[in-house]
Amino acid sequence: MDVDAISSPDPESDQELAFEGALRPKSLDEFVGQTKVRGQLELLLKAAAMQNRAPDHILLAGPPGLGKTTLAIIVALESGKPLRMSSGPAIQHAGDLAAVLSSLVPGEVLFIDEIHRMARSAEEMLYLAMEDFRIDIMVGKGAGATSIPLELAPFTLVGATTRAGLLPNPLRDRFGFTAHLEFYDEPELERVLARAADLLGLELSGDSRAEIARRSRGTPRIANRLLRRVRDYELVHGGGASVAAVQAALELYDVDPLGLDRLDRAVMHAVLMRFDGGPVGLNTLAVSVGEEAETIESVVEPFLVRIGLLTRTPRGRVASREAWKHFGLRPPAASGAQPGLFDDDL
Ligand SMILES: Nc1ncnc2c1ncn2[C@@H]1O[C@H](COP(=O)(O)OP(=O)(O)O)[C@@H](O)[C@H]1O
Ligand SMILES: [Mg+2]
Known about the structure:
By secondary structure, this protein is α/β, with parallel strands linked by helices. The chain has helices at residues 14-23, 35-50, 68-79, 94-102, 120-132, 169-173, 186-200, 206-214, 220-237, 243-252, 262-274, 282-289, 293-306, 321-326; strands at 58-61, 83-87, 109-113, 134-139, 146-151, 156-161, 177-180, 310-313, 316-319. The chain folds into three domains: 34-180, Rossmann fold, CATH 3.40.50.300; 186-252, Orthogonal Bundle (Helicase, Ruva Protein, domain 3); 262-345, Orthogonal Bundle (Arc Repressor Mutant, subunit A), CATH 1.10.10.10. The strands form three sheets. A five-stranded parallel sheet has the order 2-3-6-1-7, covered by helices on one side. Strand 4 and strand 5 form a beta hairpin. Helix 7 (186-200) packs across helix 8 and helix 11 packs across helix 12 (282-289). The longest helix has 18 residues, at 220-237. It is globular. The two termini are 42 Å apart. The chain binds adenosine-5'-diphosphate and magnesium ion. Magnesium ion is lined by residues 68-69, 113, 160.
């Protein structure tokens, strides 16, 4: 893993995937935070079990690293059914989807990650499958082509997406339940860390936990990753995972006290320095940091907004007073962005 990637919300290597697997909660009870979503899922699964039917289709929406894959696995475990994992990018033709759907066993949980990236032709097949547990398979080509209906075993689709807004309405409407996952607050991240530290056999004081939680970008995946770096540091230097050790370890990996990653910092830097604090439009901002607008909107912005560094206005993105402070900068005296916004700071 390169240093820049330490706080990226996506898994960085096969090694990390294995590590994540080991730390994944295996039941709703073990799953930290997201209280509302957990309660809703619990009800949905219980009701289905009582009626002896497959639970409704579930859509999990939210930024990377908040627990979508984990919840999909939990849905299968809690309902005692097998789990089939697939992903939008792997379904490039309706035929790819037909192959998966036609081989499901009754009650199986089908997880489609990044479902917004599935091929359009497959989407249409999925509508019918979700609604009627049936698909039409095209046989032959041209004038002689016919469609043969195929009954499917009842299944539960769990879709995950970082971009719920990109899903076509007919697909979104066919999910019985949509869960929007939120960033975790610090006490919740501390619980994630306490659990992971236990599993790793690492002793971690409350203060050390808090220090890591503060820098975890509201994201359990990042919390666990930072914990791993702290464990490495402790292994090499000894002396326990003290707050000083945590700070030294995280400084070594260039994790900022707010947990901002390279891209977060690049975006804030552009808004502050290049656009005088904004307002700046999404596309302009994306071009100026050399990223896709989609990534900025679905991965970077939600966190910056959540911690109050950035606000979205009808005219574009605007840096908050906190943002100027955090980067040790002075807001321009005549900030054309939002007259009066910074007055009491001068
Ligand atoms: N609520 C949670 N409680 C404890 N650990 C969590 C929670 N959510 C996520 N994690 C941990 O974070 C890591 C990433 O979660 P994952 O489900 O893969 O995120 P996503 O699929 O949304 O990107 C997993 O290793 C998991 O152990
Ligand atoms: Mg995932």
